[in-house]
Structures are given as structure tokens and as C-alpha cells.
Amino acid sequence: MTTVHVFISGRVQGVGFRIWVETEALSRGLEGWVRNLRDGRVEAVFHGERHAVEAMVEACRDGPPLAGVSSVTNQPWSGHAPQGFTMLATE
After folding, report:
1. Domain ranges for the chain
2. Which fold has domain 2-78?
3. Integer Cα distance of 22 and 27 in angstroms
4. Which strands form 42-48's sheet, in the order they lie side by side?
5. Catalytic residue among 11, 18, 35, 74, which?
6. Which of 53, 11, 10, 28 is nearest to 44 (CA)?
7. Residues 36, 38, 50, 74: which is the catalytic one?
8. Per the database record, which ranges form the Acylphosphatase-like domain (predicted)?
9. Which percentage of the chain shows pLDDT scores above 90?
10. Residue 18 annotated among the catalytic residues of the structure
């Protein structure tokens, strides 16, 4: 099991990105959370089997049809492993 902290930049707000992330993550059996940031990015944490987490990070490079992703960065997550998948309020 692995957990990563991800930041997605570009045209990622107002295009259904968070809902898409939640749907995609759940379909891969992942746990975690996603939220918009006030600076226009989307932030997420994905926890699960390494191959599923890596596939989710890769999928974020495309995102939903209306998105225009310019950058996806990720790093290991040092916090507690999340349970379930949650859409958090903007921070």
C-alpha cells in the first residue's frame, strides 16, 4: 500500500475535476480526498495498491473532458492513511 499527495494545475476548477477524481479513485479501489485550492489548483491524496495509485496519478494528467491540465506533481504522504474517499471544502 502507498499514499501520495498530489497537486494538479491548469484549467482544473469549474470543469467537474473533483467529481471526476472521486469517481475515478473509487473505481480503482482507492481511498483519500480531493479539494479545490484558492490558488486555482486541485489537491488530492490517494491511498491504495501502488499500481492503482500510480494509474490514478497518471489519469490526472488528462482529467475530465473539459479540463486542461498543465502540471501534476506528487510526493509521498506522511499523514495518516485516509479511509473512504471524501470531497473536502476549498482551502
Report:
1. 2-78
2. Alpha-Beta Plaits (3.30.70)
3. 9
4. 68-76, 2-11, 42-48, 31-36, 85-87
5. 18
6. 53
7. 36
8. 3-89
9. 93
10. yes
Amino acid making up residue 20: W
What digits encode the pLDDT tens for the residues 16-29?
999 999 999 999 99
The grid coordinates listed for 65 are: 473532458
| CA distance linking residue 30 with residue 70, whole number of Å | 24
The one-letter amino acid at 34: V
Beta-carbon count within 10 A of 82 CB: 17
Residue 61 is among the residues annotated as catalytic for this protein: no
For residue 10, give the C-alpha cell: 491548469
pTM: 0.95
Q: Which amino acid is located at 51 in the chain? A: H
Angle at 75 (CA atoms; ends 71, 39), nearest 5 degrees: 45
